[in-house]
Amino acid sequence: MKKVRIRYTFHGEVQGVGFRYTAKQVADYYGLTGFVKNESDGTVTAEVQGTPLDVMAFVPGITHASRWIHIESFEKREAPLREDERSFSVVGF
User: Fold this and answer.
1) Which of 5, 7, 20, 67 is catalytic?
2) What are phi and psi of 54, to 5 degrees?
3) Distances from the Cα of 39 to the Cαs of 15, 19, 46, in angstroms?
4) What is the mean pLDDT of residues 71-75?
5) Active site residue 67
6) Using CA atoms, how far apart are residues 72 and 69, in angstroms rounded to an integer?
7) Any catalytic annotation for residue 5?
8) Are strands 4-13 and 70-78 parallel, antiparallel or unpaired?
9) How far are the Cα atoms of 5, 11, 35, 82, 85 from residue 65, in angstroms, in the given order?
10) Considering 10, 28, 42, 77, which has the largest number of Cβ atoms within 10 A of its Cβ?
């Protein structure tokens, strides 16, 4: 089945609210691979890879999973596939 990889940059209340761990739970639920990490400017970056339908479910999944996370806006763009990637990781601490 065809796979896509999308790089997201999230803005809003996305640090210090469990965003990265919620993203991992959602990614694991949908069988997605990739990573999520906090950035020094207060945003969160995530690269998500999987079927187009599962990748499309990623952002709504995070939004509905926690009342503490408030995504004000996000950008997305295609990224190169990583065929050897097998899991979704939380990067940093």
Assistant:
1) 20
2) -70, -40
3) 9, 12, 10
4) 97
5) no
6) 10
7) no
8) antiparallel
9) 22, 17, 18, 27, 25
10) 10
